[in-house]
Amino acid sequence: MSVTEFRYKAFISYSHADKAWAEWLLKSLESYRIPKNLVGRATEIGEVPARLAPIFRDRDELPAAHRLTDRLFEALRASEFLIVLCSPNSAKSKLVNREIIEFKKTHGDGRILCMIVDGVPFADDPEKECFPEALLHSFRADGSRGGLSAEGLAADIRAEGDGRSMGLLKIVAGLIGVGLNDLVRRDEQRRQRNMIAVAAASIVGMSVMGALTYEASTARDAAKQAQKLAEAKTQEAITNKNDVEDLLKFMMSESYYSLLAAGELSAAENLTRKTVEFFKNKDLNSLSDEGFSRMTGSMLKLGQTLDRKGESDRAKEMFDKTLVVSRRYYEHHPMREAAIFRLQNNLFFTGYLALRQGHFVDAERDYRERLALIRKYRANTSQYVPGDAAHLYIPTVWLEREADALMGLASLLAGPLGNLTEALPMHARSVELHKQIASLRENDNDSLTNLASAYHYAGHTYVNAGEFEMAEDAFKARLSLYDELTTRDPENYRIYRRYLISLENLGSLARIRGDLSEALSFQKAAAEGYDILVAKDPENTMWLGNSAQAYYELANMALQLEQVPLATHALKKSKAQITEALERDNSRTIRRLTSYRVAVLEAELLVRGGNTADAQALLAKTITALDHESDGYLRSNGALTQYANTHLAQGKLLAESGQMEAARMVWSKAMNALETTTATLSPDGKSKLAQIYTAMGDQGKAEHLLAQLDGIGFRDSSARYFSETSGSE
């Protein structure tokens, strides 16, 4: 049969378990536009076509009685190529092996293209082998084996292989009979013509790239590397689809995240802002699902970038504006998968920022609505119109969303909302789902990062519940994951920050259990790590605030171990950093909390130096600032403990100066706050309450609380404040 007589360009052979990959490949191939300069070129397999269609995939359309007989074999014989999706599932599939054999009987070995989606080629472990047995042998027309076969192209779309984009290009190159370089390279003149064409189609083509190029040319080496990646992805987008939305896709994915990983916030902001401007006057109803996802995604990324820079109020404006758009789209298209996906995604960001700013009622409302939307979709998947956005083709995407929604809501319930009963099983379920996803998407960095976050939040809830061994297991599991991720990608500073938080988690737990030397080691390593981040991007207010908190913890541990010079140095650095961070953005409760903690520790050093009057003045000033905080502030993780410690310290100084009545008034104020809080009272908080009872002479209540704390392994060896971390990432 000649090439022109084939009915199908290719037949996709796959295991039913890999159906989502087959759907993605079919859509990608049938929508792929061959570069015009290649169309019509003579190759060994014929002229290069303008389109790769039709592709035969859906064997489900065949009548049940004929799936393995004439109709199926007819489709195989009528296909120019066979594309085999290789995975442990397909390796074990009798049907896939049968299809390969039937194709080889009539076409030989040279027209088979392999796409590895999972597993390992030629694995020692049969359970991981991705190649079906039939691929490894030639077959004669009568079906008998004709020896080993080593022909055929293999594209590896796994993250550690070629990746999706390059893997797809390999398959396309095989289907049209050209070299891979013909698809991914262009000479300079051709590249310039394409860029001009994209710019003519939309201003974003030049303005976004111009902004990125300018930023990258003035930034450090890491940003220059991000620029090169952006240019490469831009060229790939032009080659693949000659469509400006593809350019936007790469801008808002690889380019944006490369800039964040390199610590270049200014470049990331410029990139997202230009992309948002592109969509500014677009008619919402004229956008495809992909276009709508791109628009709202760029708006949310701009909000995230502003938040990282310390402009939380502007970030909130952007998140709220995006939520209005997402709700409107969902109201018009309530049965579209893309509409419900974008709305639940938007609710995460509005809820997350509300949580960080201490607006817990708003955060709970958004988090609960998000979880309800996700469960509504998962319970009625078949009733929704499938979305065409690329991320919706990932088989585990909705499972991942539910796991993430459970994690966020559980953390909110466990701390500020004081509902450990509901939170604990939610955390367990979230960790279970994230483990399941990570096992299905083996070696996927994002899945491992999400699992690590689930361990993080669960660990802090276990601390609040007094389950220290479970907390340690969670924190150690998280650290192990980040050990692996930082080894894979040592230049990814976003991942490195989370590695440092893992050290802080374990340092905090060691302090709670009375191992101050181990706590000091963890906090010292974390503080030194933040030096690297702050030096990398001084404009990153989030990193600056994290560093201030780490140096405070280091100072606190050093002082408890009587290492006064180290404590003095660390506290000085923490104070300078948190002062600068608050000047940039004082809307985050964790930053104000850190400043209050620093003040109390500074007061203790003043007392040690004999300067009691200045210490009293500093504590009085801190209490005045605390009195001006909103009611929600004291429900933030760690805030109530710090509030109590400030009043304990001030009361002690008043009592020592003979002002016992004034001291009792200060202590009573803190006692009332601790006893009436609706938030979960952490072990640290209970320790402060026991100290207040002791100071006020109520030894019975104090001993009752101390017995509870002793029973769970809490070791508060002094009457000083033992800092607790915020439990946030």
Structural features, described:
- With 729 residues, this protein is mainly alpha-helical.
- Among the domains are: 3-182, Rossmann fold (3-Layer(aba) Sandwich), CATH 3.40.50; 605-729, Serine Threonine Protein Phosphatase 5, Tetratricopeptide repeat (Alpha Horseshoe), CATH 1.25.40.
- Helices cover 66% and strands 5% of the residues.
- It is built from 29 helices and nine strands.
- It has helices at 19-30, 70-77, 88-91, 94-107, 163-176, 180-184, 188-201, 204-218, 221-241, 244-261, 265-279, 289-308, 312-332, 337-356, 360-379, 397-414, 420-440, 445-464, 468-488, 493-512, 516-536, 541-560, 564-584, 589-608, 612-627, 639-656, 660-676, 683-695, 699-711; strands at 8-13, 42-43, 46-47, 55-56, 79-86, 112-116, 137-139, 145-148, 153-156.
- Strands 4-1-5-6-9 form a five-stranded parallel β-sheet, sandwiched between helices. A two-stranded antiparallel ribbon has the order 2-3.
- β2 (42-43) and β3 form a beta hairpin.
- α16 runs antiparallel to α17, α18 runs antiparallel to α19 (468-488) and α24 runs parallel beside α26 (639-656).
- The chain is elongated.
- The protein starts with 7 loop residues before the first strand and ends in an 18-residue tail after the last helix.
